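User: My instructor asked us to take a sequence, write out its structure as tokens, and then describe one feature of it. I'm not sure where to start. Here is the sequence I was given:
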Amino acid sequence: MSLAMLRCLAPFALALLGSVVAQEDAPEVKSEIEGLKIEVKKLPKKCLIKSSSELRDFVEMHYTTKIAKSSKTGKPGAKVDTSRDPSGLNDPLSFQLNSGRVIKGWDYGVRDMCEGEVRILTVEPENGYGDEPYSQKNADDESVEVPANATLRMEVEMIKVIRLQKSTTFKPKVCKRMAQGGDSLKVAYTLWIHPTSISGNKGELVESSKDDGAGPMTFILGAGRVIPGWDQGMEGVCVGEKIELVVPPEFGYREKGQGEKILPLATLHFEVELLSAEETNMFAQMDTDGDGKVDEKELGVFMQKTQGLKDPEIVKKIFEGEDKNTDGFIDWDEAPFPKGDRPAEKPRFMVGGMAPAADAKEEKKEEAPPADAKEEKKEEKKEEL
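Assistant: Let's start with the prediction itself. The structure tokens for your sequence are:
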């Protein structure tokens, strides 16, 4: 082989060696849960942003799901569903991490994942569809069938990580109270269409609480009465603090829009000042009969009143998820929402102040005259005769 040929091959050899090294240096992804195997198939040259479940990111990704070769049920290798249709059009799925929108194995499998990264997920049944068969139509009206106890193999590609942007413009020296889920918040705000928005008039003023007749807005934090960007963005803000929020459509009004100025898929820009935050005891509000526990009916009434939720099946699922000991109630220890101090146990009163039957018998026994007293009475009667 000539020296010139070696010189030509040298860059190729270095590039090949570099690709091998890069592959060897690819990080091993340890799963946070058992029954989920995560393998990195491809890494981007530079990781600009990683998905975060703590920040509750939205992720947009392509996927192909098949029955895994190791599956005990179903046909190994059979395709279940894909975001890439036969025509080659891109139809990625968007969902929020830690929201329960997708199966557990998928949610955990794409955490701390870079844009442009491709992973292979092997999802055991307990992190997939469990011991019941799954059947549904996908977005293309195609049937998606997963047999019971199936292990799945998913190839997932992270297209985009969508994150709520939050910055503080003023913070009081002393934080007297920090907003928490369940608090009643009063806020002053101004809303514009963000300059990066793909819809609407960029930079246009939409509305402000300073407008005539508007005034501050009051809402319960975390109750779903405002856009997700507010529920998430206001958590941890101090009374008196001023913040700016850049709200992507996934955290705002999504494909629906709102009114004439907020068009579908609009990105929003808020300036918000927290005027007050008052603790609310959601447990006490639900526990209408004051027995120190919440039943399914009480939860349903509260959800309808505060969130407009009327679907009894959804209420039932929420209730069953929180009733950890399956006794038919959500007690104070089980309640994950703001609940104040532990309610005092009610004293047990008998009807009309009567003592329990056993105690009454004892009292009657104590009140009965002794045997000597009975004999004395008999003697008195004899003497009288």
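For the description part of your assignment, you could build on this observation: The chain has eight helices and 16 strands. Try explaining in your own words what that tells you about the chain.
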